[in-house]
Amino acid sequence: MFIVVITLGLLAAMGVYGMTSASSDIKAAGHMRDALQGQKAGEHALIMTAEALNPASVQALVANMSDENNRTKNCKTAAPFTGTGAVPAASACLRLTEAEMRNAYYVGSPLPPVIDGFASDSFGALNTKPYVEVELSNPLDVPPPPGSGYDPSTTKFTQVTATVFVNVRTAPTAAAQAVVAGRGRLTVGPIQGRPPRYP
């Protein structure tokens, strides 16, 4: 009788361990899937940012970064600026949402963008969705590349830092299941119509 009781106890303990282990594996797989969804959404957001900064819309977007009335004043990636007059490059910033990037893209092209939104079912039937924001900051004027045919006295290109923030959530105000950030430096242009200010 004693041996039977001990055997049943061991079998019960093994069953509980197996159930706990399987549950932990399922949770870990879900967290890895959320993290991968956030990473891929961040990569796509950088591509979408490059598309939004097309030659037809880039001049207005770069100008808005340094304009006191149009720039984003609470960027995470730019230095605060409380003065008046010209906004220094360290404080210039513009935050773009997914919808704003799509609208900026359509200014310059009749074709649909490569990345047309971030669907909740891109990784299967999920109840989470990546919510994306991009901050453009730190603009720096650079001359046209040699041999490009652009006149350096009237045309410039601008390098901007694009920082992507992705929160994988079940709803816009819900707690994030995964958080991903990425950064890239983009050279955009051409920007014409005023003398460039090169460093």
Description of the molecule:
36% of the residues lie in helices and 25% in strands. By secondary structure, the protein is α+β, with helices and mostly antiparallel strands. The protein has one domain (10-192). The chain has a 4-stranded antiparallel sheet with strand order 1-2-3-4. Helix 1 (2-52) runs parallel beside helix 3. The termini are far apart.
Indicate the overall shape.
elongated
Order of helices and strands: HHEHEEE
User: Which percent band covers the strand fraction?
Assistant: 15-25%
Evaluate the radius of gyration.
Answer: 25 Å
Mean pLDDT: 75
Say how many strands there are: 4
Which sequence of strands runs across the widest sheet?
1-2-3-4
What distance lies between the first and last C-alpha atoms, to the nearest angstrom?
89 Å
**Parts with pLDDT < 50 across at least 5 consecutive residues:** none
Number of helices: 3
Helix content: 25-40%
Q: Can you describe this structure in just a few lines?
A:
The protein is an alpha+beta fold.
